[in-house]
Design goal:
Chain lengths: 282, 294
Amino acid sequence: MRWRRIEERVFGVLMLLATAVVVGSLVWIAGVIVYRGAGALKLSMLVQLPRGGAYGREGGILNGIVGSVLLSLPATILAGMVALPACIILQDEHAGRNPFIRSARLSLDVLWGVPSIVYGAFGYILMVYMGLRASLLAGIVAITFVQLPIVARAIDEVMRTVPLELKEAAFATGATRFEVATRVVVRQSLPGILTGLLLGFGRGIGDAAALLFTAGYTDGIPASLTEPAASLPLTVFYLLGAPYPEARAKAYAAAFVLLAIVLVVSVVSRLATAKLRRSTVI
Amino acid sequence: MRAVTVFLIALPCILAVALFLRSRPILERVPVLDLLTSDVWRPSRGEFGFLPFLMGSAWVTILAMAIATPLCLLTAIYVSEYASPAFTAVFRPVIDVLAGIPSIVYGLWGVLAIVPAVERIAPFVGRHLGFVPGLSTASFVTGDCVLSGAVVLAVMVAPVIIAVSVEVLGAVPRELREAALSVGATKWQTVKLVVLRKSFAGLVAAVILGFARALGETMAVLMVVGNVANVPGSIFEAAYPLPALIANNYGEMMSVPLYDSALLLAALVLLAVVILFNLGARAALKLVTVRFRR
């Protein structure tokens, strides 16, 4: 009897400790990045390209900011263009028994687990195969592969919650499959689709491993799809290895900007979803 | 639209085939077993032994899971069984935020916070516990070592493990808990003897998913793990995991013969292992959900 009570206590304390460690590490990470990053960030960095030699001791991180947006925005759109029609196909009334749909969902699970460095290597193979060099285009393709399973799984998940009765009601009034898909399923899951896209964007803008081989790096802003593009994560990575404190300060600042973008996207997606949800029945 | 879905189904195979075709030159030259078990890595002389990188990945990932698993499972049990709804409402977004933080940010945190901390504790541990295998600091150089990589990884995979575990625990029917409580079991006994037993396969799946995620993680680990091509003998030695090998050498790929073939083979090995783990985890998850639906 006594032992039982001790065990109860011990595990209660352990669980509280574990939870505190998990929450505490988030606070620790945010604290370190905000403290070092915000301290190093000057507003002029946000609007200036790097200047002053190999590691760009002067100037800003505009190349990284613009490069990241140029890479992940088109990638998000591409991923959405693949994921949306694919997910519509997955919403079959007999999905559980349909081997085609089941293998598609399994494939998405598998793709979700593939590390981004592997997508980077695959993007590199594609790039060489098409006769390209490290470029904005190759980077977009690699990031699209990274985002695709994230976006598709999010969209599929939300589309699965559309009630069957709703679709049946539309069919009963004589709607075609296409009409049901676009006007009922897509319409009802619009908030979730938006969340999925923003989730993908957030993941894409933070990914570095897929870009190492494919997008390259530049101090300028790419003028065309075939020029290399910088990105915020790689700005952090390269400048961190610089021998000058000024350059490392820029790395901290870039990490802070990146974290801020990711957090803002996450908050916006929550707010937008809440707002859009008012116009749906689920 | 069907064509797009077919593309999605084929994509994992396309990835594997593309990587395999590109790694064939080295596979034709050297038997796979030799590649995987040799520890000599001298690309300029045409010697490609993957053992240091496989062992580097194993050390860092297994240590990371040893840190993360108890923490995450205890947290998941607390959130699912004990915490108030108000706490859960706050905790969920926190986990989402943790999951969304870019790996380079985790890496920077590792460089600024974890590496110096490891540097400070290493001599102390070495003095008092150095006789324990795996804890020796005899070849300790800097804080860039297995332990730093594992700590950063543990924090990175926590959101995955916790999110899946909470979901699995939530799927255990409430009636089972009530039955246990009504025959006089304490809260913890209910958790230990009913909830955990029922959801065991799912919790294993959560840990495997975390493991697979940790195995493929590149940038954050690369920044804090030292990157020395040696089989590590202690958590205070530098290691060189497989993803870091690929990431670090992409620039030199073209200049040395067979080098890019070797690196793409590394990517193929990584892909194969990660897919296997993911499929295993999915099968276990399915087992749990199917059992509860009855």
